[in-house]
């Protein structure tokens, strides 16, 4: 089957890149021919080294459509040919465009206020990211379509940087003084080196080292091999769960992240203050993985159907 996938995003970032990659790999593994619609993955007006590293990762590891689209209307006007269309990560009704009679929606994030009959008439099937009602199946985040061992085997020998040993990793778009204070204290406490992945160009990292232009392969490897991960990012939390890592969360204050932390039962991993080191609070992923396994089963059934 030929499948075209629209990953809804406001611009390229680690989460959109890894979501595109994971759902692509999963469906190719099932014997399908898959294209990712090149929508908003790179902006012609902002080709930063950061976005270029992410786009190069996609361009080298998945099949992108020949056309680039910066507007949804462009996709509707010049739709790639496929037997099935999948919309992933839709956060608003505006993103739920009908790409044809065989359009399904995977992991929709906010459909509580939508017209149910309109959705039913518009799409062949819909799955959601949270338990809204019995109308739509709740499925796993695309990251979990691939197992821990899948990610490990894919990325094990494809890292562009030398992975250090015995280190604490900070992964955050911006690094506050509280994060730096906490990171320094934790690295001294655990007697580990300290590394940062951040877009904050002006931060002063004291005894840590900033790793620049990290692509998604590097990010996955760095998180998998770190002793501890300090993060403000949703994708950082998800990758820590995937690899069952010791995560320290500085919340970004967004409701969606609070829901994510609650769903993953990681409230005891929220850093309350820079002096409150969480090293002795163990992450227990056993119960969580029972729920994730059920969501993965829902996902597999959804695609099979």
Task: Describe what you observe in this structure.
It is a single chain. The chain has 305 residues and is α/β, with parallel strands linked by helices. It has two domains: 2-138, Rossmann fold; 154-291, 3-Layer(aba) Sandwich (Rossmann fold). The chain is 36% helix and 18% strand. It is built from ten helices and twelve strands. It has helices at residues 14-29, 49-61, 72-77, 116-122, 148-155, 177-190, 216-225, 234-242, 255-263, 286-304; strands at 2-7, 33-39, 64-69, 84-88, 103-108, 125-128, 137-138, 167-171, 193-197, 209-210, 228-231, 246-249. The strands form two sheets. The chain has a seven-stranded parallel beta sheet with strand order 3-2-1-4-5-6-7, sandwiched between helices. α1 (14-29) packs parallel to α2. The longest helix has 19 residues, at 286-304. The model has no long low-confidence stretch (mean pLDDT 84).
Explain briefly what this protein structure is:
This protein is α/β, with parallel strands linked by helices and 305 residues long.
Which ranges are low-confidence, i.e. pLDDT below 50, for 5 or more consecutive residues? none
Give helix % range: 25-40%
Tell me the name of the CATH homologous superfamily of the largest domain. Answer: NAD(P)-binding Rossmann-like Domain
Structural Rg: 20 Å
CATH topology of the largest domain, which one? Rossmann fold
| Mean pLDDT over the residues | 84
